[in-house]
Design brief:
The chain is of the alpha/beta class. It is built from 8 helices and 7 strands, in the order E-H-H-H-E-H-E-H-E-H-E-E-E-H-H. The chain has a 7-stranded mixed β-sheet with strand order 4-3-2-1-5-6-7. The radius of gyration is 16 Å and the shape is globular. The chain starts with a strand and ends with a helix.
Length: 175
């Protein structure tokens, strides 16, 4: 998998997952149902940036401030991934958002100083495997790199695709 490089969509501090990134009150009508990715993509960030759903491009990068995506049901990660965002780079967020996002193949990196270092529309690179975030001016900010297993999950596109591939390989090896 190539190192994600894309255009920045910059958001501020204290962005709520369920009343900012998505509109939780209109999407949740029961647990255990399939995600409506088209509906999630259509509402992703529209309260904060009405142009986002129509203007986001595959490979773009979301940059957020402190306490990003607080109050985040799993649909938040699915909506961002369905919008074809390559990576989310934030000042801080809770560990639940990190886990839920990675389970769906969306890498989230915590990178101190990122919010002040970039502007909306800048093109940056972000490598979860090394923790390196390349800025437009050539500087590189450091975040904690993903563990080997996290890299495997990210590269597979999520936990389920990785487990399916691993079980298929085991079945093939034992056949």
């Amino acid at each position: 998998m190539d190192i994600p490089k894309g255009r920045v969509w910059k958001f501020g501090n204290d962005v709520s997952g369920d009343d900012g990134i998505i509109e939780f009150s209109i999407i949740r009508d029961g647990f255990g149902k399939e995600f409506d990715e088209a509906a999630l993509r259509a509402m992703c960030f529209r309260r904060l940036r009405p142009e986002f759903p129509q203007q986001v491009r595959p490979g773009d990068i979301v940059v957020g401030g402190r306490n990003f995506a607080h109050h985040n049901p799993v649909e938040v990660s699915v909506a961002i991934r369905a919008s074809r965002i390559a990576v989310v780079v934030v000042e801080s967020c809770d560990s639940g958002f990190l886990r839920r996002a990675l389970n769906h193949g969306l890498p989230v990196m915590i990178c101190p100083g990122i919010h002040a270092a970039v502007a909306d529309g800048d093109v940056i690179s972000a490598n979860p495997a090394t923790g390196a975030v390349g800025l437009p001016d050539g500087r590189v900010l450091a975040s904690r790199p993903f563990s080997e297993r996290m890299v495997q999950v990210w590269r597979a596109g999520g936990s389920i695709p990785l487990l399916e591939a691993e079980f298929a390989a085991r079945r093939a090896a034992s056949a």
